[in-house]
Amino acid sequence: MVPLFVGAQQTLTLEECRNRALEANKGLKMSAEKMEETSNLEKVALWQMLPKVGATGGYTWMEKSVRLLSEEQEDKLNNLGNNVQQGIVQAVSEETSNLPIGGELIGNALNNILNNTNLSSSLNQVGQDITKALETDTRQVAFGVVTLTQPIYLGGKLSALYKTARYLNHLSGIEYDKKREETLIAVDEAYWQVVSVKRKKELAEQYAALLDTLNRNVEELVAAEMATKGDLAKVRVKYNEAQMSLTKATNGLALAKMLLAQRCGMPLDTDFDVSETNPTLELTQHQPIVMDSVWKNRRELQMLRISDSIARQGQRIAASSLKPNVAFTGGYLFSNPNLFNGFQNEWGGTWMAGVVVNVPIIHIGGIYSVKAAKAKRREVAYQMEEAKEMIELQVNKIRSELDLAYRKFDQAQSNLQQAEENLRLADESFKAGMCSSSDLMAAQTAWVSAQSEVLDAEIEIEMNSVYLRQALGNR
C-alpha cells in the first residue's frame, strides 16, 4: 500500500478505499491466520489415521550387576564335583553294606576307585564354568526400541476427527469472508458519509454565497432608501446562520474523513479527497426474492450448517468410546548387554509385532456423552430455524426501507424542481422590486432544504442497496 503523507492530498475512489481497508484491517488478518491454523489442524487430523513411527532409547548405570544365582546356588555349583562324589560314596556305602558277603570289601574298593579318579575336580570345574557363565555385567545398560503403530479401528473416532477438522477449516473460510464483507460495508458507510457531508458543505457554501449576494443587494437598497435596516438585519442574521452551518459542515467533513482514514488504515490527519460525489442509484425494478436462495447464500446459515455437521461428528466421537479399539504395533528392540545371547557385552536385538484390542465393558460416561452430543445437534437445529426467521425479517425490512428511500428520492426530486422554480421566480421578483428580501430568503432556504433532501435520499438508496445485497447473500 502506498503511504499517504500529511499535506499531500490524494483523491481516492471507493474501490481504492476498499482495497486499503482490506489490507489494513487487523481483524481480517486474524481471520486469515485462523484459516492457516485450521488448515494445519486438518492435516494433523489426517496424519492421525496414518502409521506412527517412534524411537526410544536410554542408558542406565547401576552399582551392582543383576545376579541370576544366589550365593548358596553358586556355592553348590562351584563344589559340584565334591558334592556328587560325596553323594556317590554315601550311596555306595549304603548299598554295599546290605550285601551278605564281601559288602564292605566291595564298598572300600569302589571308594578307592572314586578317590583315585579325577571326577570331583572335573565336575567342580564344570560347575564353576556354569557359575561364571551365569554372571551378568549389567552395571551399564543401553537399550533402544523402534516402534510402528497403525490404528485399525477406533470406533470411527479418527474419521470423525478428520471430518471435524475439515469442517472447522471450511468454517474459518466462511468467517473470513464474513469479516471481509463487514469490513467493506464499514468502508462504504464511512465513504458515503464523507460524500454526503462534502456535498452538504458545498451546498452550505452555495447558500452562503447566495446570502452574501443578497446582503450586498439589500445594502444597496438601504442606501437608496428602497429597503429598511430591519430587512438588512434579517439578511445578516440568515447569513450568519449560513456561515455557522458552513463551519459545522467543515468540521463534520473533517470528522468523517478521520473515520474513513481509520477504516482504511491511514493516519487520522491524512489529507485526501474522494472522487465519487454522486451515488450510482439502482433504479431498476427489483426481482422477486426467493428465500430458499437467500438461506443458501447467507453466511450465517452456512456456518450453522457446518456447526450441525461438526455436532454430528461429535456424536460419532462420543459413540466411539463405547466401541472396541484395534491397533497393530510392531518394531525392533535392541540392547547392550545382549538379552538374547546370555547377557553378553554386545549389541543384540529382535523384531516384534502384535495386535492390541481394547473392548469397553462398563462405560456409563460414554452413554451420557452421546446424549449430550445429540442435544447439541438439536440445539443447532433450533438455532438454524431461528436464524431463518430473523433473516427473512431482515430482508423484508431492508427491502421496505429501500422502497421507501426510492419514494423519498422521487418526492425530493419533485420538491427540488418546485423549489428551483420558486427560487427563480422569487429572484426575478426581487430584482423587479415586486417581493421582499424575506420572501427571497424563504425561497433560498426551501431550495437548500430540497437539495439536502435529495442528497439524503441518494445516500439512503446507496446504503440500503448495499445492505440488501448483504442480506440476500450476494457477493
Question: Your description of this structure?
Answer:
The protein is an alpha+beta fold and 475 residues long. Helices cover 68% and strands 11% of the residues. The chain folds into three domains: 1-62 and 143-267 and 325-359, Outer membrane efflux proteins (OEP) (Up-down Bundle); 70-137, no CATH class; 278-323 and 365-475, Outer membrane efflux proteins (OEP) (Up-down Bundle), CATH 1.20.1600. The chain has a four-stranded antiparallel beta sheet with strand order 2-3-5-6, with no helix packed on it. The radius of gyration is 49 Å and the shape is rod-shaped. The model is unreliable at 1-7 (pLDDT under 50).
Quick description:
With 475 residues, the protein is α+β, with helices and mostly antiparallel strands.
What topology does this entry show?
Elements lengths: L9 E3 L1 H11 L1 H22 L4 E10 L9 H8 L1 H17 L6 H14 L2 H15 L6 E14 L3 H67 L5 H35 L8 E3 L16 H7 L1 H22 L4 E12 L11 E11 L5 H68 L5 H36 L3
Parallel strand pairs: 1-4
Antiparallel strand pairs: 2-3, 3-5, 5-6
Keywords:
single chain, 475 residues, alpha+beta, Outer membrane efflux proteins (OEP), 3 domains, four-stranded antiparallel sheet, 6 strands, 68% helix, 11% strand, rod-shaped, disordered N terminus
